[in-house]
Design a protein that fits this description.
The chain is an alpha/beta fold. The chain has 8 helices and 11 strands. The strands form 2 sheets. An 8-stranded mixed β-sheet has the order 6-7-5-4-8-9-11-10, with helices on both faces. Strands 1-2-3 form a 3-stranded antiparallel β-sheet, with no helix packed on it.
């Protein structure tokens, strides 16, 4: 598999997977996307005030989304206990962490994942589970996550990652009134979210014509 290092419009790097024909982040801004499409809509800053956050990062890639969340949480509450559980299929993209240096302070922790699947430093823990996320997700416990970052390749390229059954697994794991965030607003994705039991609304518009999507279980007002 050939992966090409590219620079995005916010002057941060990501990779183009030339076999798939897609990059791992928006080319309008890789790090910008991590903060604005995942950390902000999942209300990481607010969650940090509780003193403990557990994040599920699906299709982890090179880890920008989770690293950005850790930065934001620690600014809000330096004593916050943060646990990231990351699901990823492709070890080759994880190895590429060694080649990038984004302007994310916490990213130094993620460098260790190239050689170790678990990292612990103080009150921060990161666990990377390798394998097909549709299978590995089954080992995780019910109602245990405060935020879900959903970042597979596009529904057109990887429709299997956006199916009803997979969303049902995520629904099982996420706490009530907590948020799943993803970059796409594809109709198929939203219909499958509804079929699985999620409610949804528009997420932020960042570098695309359309918004992302936020989803949650049980009725409550986003705001």
């Amino acid at each position: 598999m050939f992966m090409k290092l590219i620079k995005t419009a916010d002057d941060t790097e990501t990779f183009m997977n030339e076999e798939v024909g897609e990059s791992y982040h928006s080319q309008t801004g890789a790090v910008e996307e991590a903060f604005k499409k995942y950390t902000v809509p999942c209300k990481i800053k607010k969650l940090a005030k509780s003193g403990k956050i557990r994040i599920l990062d699906i299709c982890f890639g090179i880890g920008y989304n989770s690293a950005a969340a850790i930065d934001v949480a620690l600014v809000e509450n330096p004593e916050c206990e943060i646990e990231v559980v990351a699901l990823e299929y492709d070890k080759e993209i994880v190895d590429k962490i060694a080649e990038v240096n984004p302007p994310i302070k916490s990213y130094v922790l993620f460098k260790e994942l190239v050689n170790n699947l678990e990292v612990q430093e103080g009150k921060i823990s990161i666990k990377l589970i390798m394998g097909d996320a549709r299978e590995t997700i089954r080992q995780l416990e019910n109602d245990s996550f405060d935020a879900v970052f959903m970042d597979p390749f596009s529904p057109k390229t990887a429709p299997e990652m956006w199916g009803v059954d997979f969303f049902k697994e995520i629904l099982r794991l996420i706490k009530e009134k907590r948020i799943l965030a993803t970059y796409t607003c594809a109709r198929m994705v939203r219909e499958n979210m509804l079929a699985a039991g999620f409610n949804y609304d528009d997420g932020p518009i960042v570098g695309r014509r359309g918004p992302g999507t936020i989803a949650w279980k049980e009725e409550f007002k986003i705001g």
